[in-house]
Amino acid sequence: MKLLEPFTIRGATFRNRVAMSPMCMHSADTGGFVSDFHLIHYGARALGGAALIFPETLGILENGLIGPGDLGIWSDEHVSGLSRLVDIIHKMGAKAGAQIGHAGRMLGIEHLPPVAPSAVPFAEGHKTPDALSEEGILDIIAAFKAAAIRAREAGFDVLEIHTAHGYLLNEFLSPLANMRTDKWGGNHENRYRILRHILEAVRPEWEGPLFVRISTTDYVEGGNTPEDFMIYGQWMKEQGVDLIDCSSGGIARVKVNSYPGYQVPASTLLKEKLGIMTGAVGMIETADLAEDIVSNERADIVLIGRAMLRDPFWVRSAADQLRTTISVPPQYTRYGAWWLNNQPRPEPVPMDETANLY
Predict the structure, then answer these.
(1) Dist. CA 260–CA 182, nearest whole Å
(2) Which one of 6, 154, 175, 344 has the largest count of C-beta atoms within 10 Å of its C-beta?
(3) Is 132 helix (H, G, I), strand (E, B) or coil?
């Protein structure tokens, strides 16, 4: 089963093609620091068999948090806690991914003013953000670079630039949010300029796999479509991006007709036309669908979100559904306790006498 086979990106070998998608938990200690919750929550999913664990988006600046209690990476003080989290993920057999981003006008912290490419609110009733100055844009680029360095110091294996879901870099890419008339807005090249500078700043600091998460469509007339990302994606590939993580939406308040695998066509399009690795995400809940996606080369990895919240051992469940076997922690096998302590395995006993073994 291709889904559960090891594969390698830029020298990093993953035990299978299943990643845990980044999802905000809003459970950080004051100041954006790793809490015990994160150690248990993400460690459990690593123990459960996922090859790559993405914690929630790590905020590159305090005024870029998606919501209260989000994790930060804007300070050197964050590194020790993140390093501890990475160490636990590694000990459980998985790789650790750092998705770094800035919320832009979607800032979820009430007492801080939001910033964006233009002074255009997300929707009626939302705060009007401050349009970033030239200096402010350069500060954002520098903050992404500093975050990448901290992610490297913390020991993360994969770096992902969050350019989706209506957050700051998505705002720059979308003509629905970027109304600038200077070199940071207008045509595709200008709207991409901030991401180009970020990738130029980050790639020399990051030798490992580099992903970019995108919203492949804005779902609104006049917004970005997968065809626009054929242009952006080619530039990403030229800049050393290894994988494009294909999500959608977020730039406007619209109702999305979502269904299992609804974002897969975009990942397939970019993979086929650009010759770049892609990730598929969004309502991928069954092992059969996940296997179909990777075995038919519609994407190179699948990112599992809510299904993995419900089942930390989603990968083991998937192996059962696909009628194959995977390596599992010895503690979860019948005689794991004896194996761990180098003791002889006991003789089998009748089933009604096994209760005292567990």
Answers:
(1) 40
(2) 154
(3) coil
On the question of pLDDT at 170 being above 70, the answer is yes
Q: What is the pTM of this model?
A: 0.94
The three-state secondary structure class of 318 is: helix
> Is the Cβ–Cβ distance between 85 and 39 less than 8 Å?
yes
Residues 6+ apart with CB under 8 A from 138: none
Domains along the sequence of the chain with CATH: 2-327 (3.20.20.70), 330-358 (no CATH)
What does the DSSP 8-state code read for residue 29? B
Neighbour tally for 240: CB within 10 Å: 14
DSSP 273-304: HH--EEEEESS--SHHHHHHHHHTTS-SEEEE
Tens of pLDDT, residues 184-232 = 999 999 999 999 999 999 999 999 999 999 999 999 999 999 999 999 9
Alpha carbon distances (Å) from 251 to 75, 248, 264: 28, 9, 19
Integer Cα distance of 143 and 136 in angstroms = 10
Q: How many Cα atoms occupy the beta-carbon half-sphere of 91 within 13 Å?
A: 11
Residue type, 324: T
Sequence-ordered list of residues with C-beta below 8 angstroms from that of 21, at least 6 positions apart, any chain: 54, 281, 303, 304, 305, 308
